[in-house]
Amino acid sequence: MLPQVVTYLPGLRPLSTMELYTDTYYIQRIQAGDVACFACLLDKYSRPIHSLILKVVRSQEEAEELAQDTFMKVFKNLASFKGDCSFSTWIYRIAYNTAISSVRKKRYEFLAIEETTLENVSEEEVTNLFGQTESTEQVQRLEVALEQLLPDERALILLFYWKEKTIEELVSITGLTASNIKVKLHRIRKKLFVLLKGMDHE
């Protein structure tokens, strides 16, 4: 049987076996002065954070700059991280706010869809369509449709389905209420349905 406490460093609380080499482990070491451990968090999160930001801003160069800005903010504010939410949720919140703040400064063209069109789409139709996204062609079509969403809509749908964040985590990341998030996700799914169906007639 493994001992309950497997490591102890000055200034840190004892860590259990389950916490060893997790985000909690590295965060505590960094907060205790071992800043070299930040490289471990950077290695774990740099690719998914950059990928999310790229999906939002749609510019490789800008995504790289914003990802770097995100990690600078994370490092600068890590001492204030209290663990009220998971570190993953916390870092995605910073990335989300950084990306959305950037796109709000610009003017983007997007395809407007009439409200009546969305109202005429049934949930069954949406569910059936999204249950058929296994082939490469279907995934590519979905990628094209995602590009036509507003940046904040794209971020929300990607966080929920791609990053598999819960509604509670999305509340923490976006600052929106749970009910607002559910309404937005429902609406975005319908928009994607309309966009995908539109491709069938092109």
TrEMBL record:
Q: Which family does it belong to?
A: Belongs to the sigma-70 factor family. ECF subfamily.
Q: Which gene encodes it?
A: rpoE_3
Q: Which UniProt keywords apply?
A: DNA-binding, Sigma factor, Transcription, Transcription regulation
Point out the signal peptide segment: none
Give an example GO biological process: DNA-templated transcription initiation
Domain of life, per lineage: Bacteria
* Residues of the RNA polymerase sigma factor 70 region 4 type domain: 140-192
Q: Which organism is it from?
A: Parabacteroides distasonis
Q: Show the GO MF annotations.
A: DNA binding; sigma factor activity
Domain RNA polymerase sigma-70 region residue range list: 42-107
Looking up Pfam families in the UniProt record yields: Sigma70_r2 (PF04542), Sigma70_r4_2 (PF08281)
Q: Which InterPro entries match?
A: RNA_pol_sigma-70-like, RNA_pol_sigma-70_dom, RNA_pol_sigma70_ECF_CS, RNA_pol_sigma70_r2, RNA_pol_sigma70_r4_t2, RNA_pol_sigma_r2, RNA_pol_sigma_r3/r4-like, WH-like_DNA-bd_sf
Please give the name of this protein.
RNA polymerase sigma factor
Q: Does the keyword Magnesium apply?
A: no
Q: Does the keyword Transcription apply?
A: yes
